Amino acid sequence: MRWKTRTLVTVGLLGYGAYRLYQKRQAIADLLSESQERLPKIQADLANITDRLADIQAMTPTLEKAGRDLQRHLAHYQTERAYRLETIANIAQKYSPKEDN
Q: What number of H helices and E strands is found in the chain?
């Protein structure tokens, strides 16, 4: 008896599922049709993204080199600036009026 009840419940649920699918068949068909229409655009977008990623990866060494160059130039600029500020301060101190006490 127990297996019979389980079988009846299973068949009932499967029947209800099939009925609901039949009721929504047009919505499901529209969704599948829309998905099939969008598939080529999605594939084109994926190919575009893949190409752009390859471009970025190809540019990475060049950008890293440019970054290192900029860091080197910045360090040189900061050293040069410190030297010039020190020179200006020395000249200003040399020619500033001295206070007599």
A: 2, 0
Q: 22, 29 in Cβ contact below 8 A?
A: no
Length of the chain: 101
What's the farthest any 2 CA atoms get from each other in the chain? 119
Instruction: Extract the runs of DSSP E, i.e. beta strands, from the chain.
Output: none
For residues 64 and 75, give the distance between their C-alpha atoms in angstroms, rounded to a whole number: 17
Residue 100 pLDDT > 80: no
What is the per-residue DSSP string for 59-76? HHHHHHHHHHHHHHHHHH
Dihedral, CA atoms, 5, 9, 12, 17, nearest 10 degrees?
Answer: -160
Please give the model's pTM, rounded to 2 decimal places.
Answer: 0.49
Q: What is the pLDDT of residues 14-65, one digit of tens each?
A: 999 999 988 988 998 999 999 899 999 999 999 999 999 999 999 999 999 9
